[in-house]
Amino acid sequence: MSTAKVSLRYFVLGLLAQQPMSGYDIKRFVKGLSWLIGSPSSGSLYPALRSLLEDQLVSVEIIPGVDKPPRKIYSIEQVGRDALRQWIEKPVVADAPLKAFVMRLLLADSFSTTNLAAYLEQRRTQVATHQADLAKMSETLSSSTDLGLRLALNYGLELASAEMNWLDNTLIRLDERLQNS
Fold first, then answer.
1. Within a domain: residue 100?
2. What is the pTM of this model?
3. 86 neighbors 9 (Cβ within 8 angstroms)
4. Which residue segment(s) compose the domain that 68 sits in?
5. Same-domain pairing of 121 and 153
6. What are the tens digits of pLDDT across the range 42-67?
7. Is 97 among the domain residues?
8. For 106-141, how does the pLDDT look when each residue is reduced to its tens digit (9 = 90+)?
């Protein structure tokens, strides 16, 4: 199973852990965040829901519609919560794309504070490595280097710097939260 399918499967479980939803509700929610995480097609979302149902990780309630088709409202089962917790506790692949990072971040309520801090530390290490690699590349550029490459490297460095700042501030707040609990 591809990483994208696995991420979508557990992302949907995480959303259902927050509240029961229909496939349409999930699609609408994700569409609002499409600039951050993309938007799964109906051809991937509904098979993911069907698979979760077949694996008994979720249940479905069919609510009859007045002058419209019935709605299928999916709810997470305890075995689904257990599967979600196990997935959250697994280390993330070191080269996980930004989309996968943000999808897990949206499920922060499902993490313990300790696991969330570890997840953010892992992302911080990943971003620091990318930032250092981009800085090295940038240093080797000559004045005759293609403008597009220089712009792309500068853009990447700025993004990495902003993300490192956000990660550092968030980790400080999480550490304060851990100390106060």
1. no
2. 0.80
3. no
4. 3-91
5. yes
6. 688 999 999 999 999 999 999 998 88
7. no
8. 888 888 888 899 999 999 999 999 999 999 998 888
